[in-house]
Amino acid sequence: MRPNVPKLIFAVLLSIYFLWIAWDPMQGSFLDNVDLPIHEFGHLLFRILGEFMGIAGGSLFQVIFPAVFVGYFVWQRSFYSAAIVSLWVGQSILNVWVYAADAVVMQLVLTSGSTGAEGSFHDWNYMLTHFGLLGSTKTVAGIIRFIGTSTIIISSVFAVYYSFIQADEEV
User: Fold this and answer.
1) Does pTM top 0.90 for this prediction?
2) How far apart are CA 52 and CA 46, in angstroms?
3) Could you tell me the residue ranges of all domains in the chain?
4) Interior/surface letters 41-70, b for 16+ CB within 10 angstroms, e for the rest
5) pLDDT tens across 29-81, in order?
6) Residue 6, by phi and psi: left (phi above 0), alpha (psi -120 to 50) or beta?
7) Angle at 82 between CA 78 and CA 88, to 5 degrees
């Protein structure tokens, strides 16, 4: 098998970038500015399902949104594209981890311009309190980080693998 060199280079560079994000999610990424409006729209979209879902909907939708594109590419049997977009899914999950890990200390500056500790509403503080899991914030956040990092690693492997598969072989 001979690789599609531009696809391979792109897959390797993106994989390195997203693995760097997975190493230290607190550093942020260029996609954070994309995730935020999607997150906020998720609150509006899920609000019709009640208060809890309206609050959880932000984090849910920012992961669901790129996952829909992954599903589309899988449906089209464009597996390389699906793997590339799956990197965004992993990054978005790690972005949720940043928010979830802050549930107790509430030091992140939120869209209101202040922190949860300063009186702004904090989604993850609310959700973990709702389920009686605020004391388990580190565990919950750790699971989220594991899922996000695993998604990035698996997506990287598939992106590189599918750069060796020609488009006519994918079908």
Assistant:
1) yes
2) 9
3) 30-161
4) ebbebbeeeeeeebbbbbbbbbbbbbbebb
5) 899 999 999 999 999 999 999 999 999 999 999 999 999 999 999 999 999 99
6) alpha
7) 155
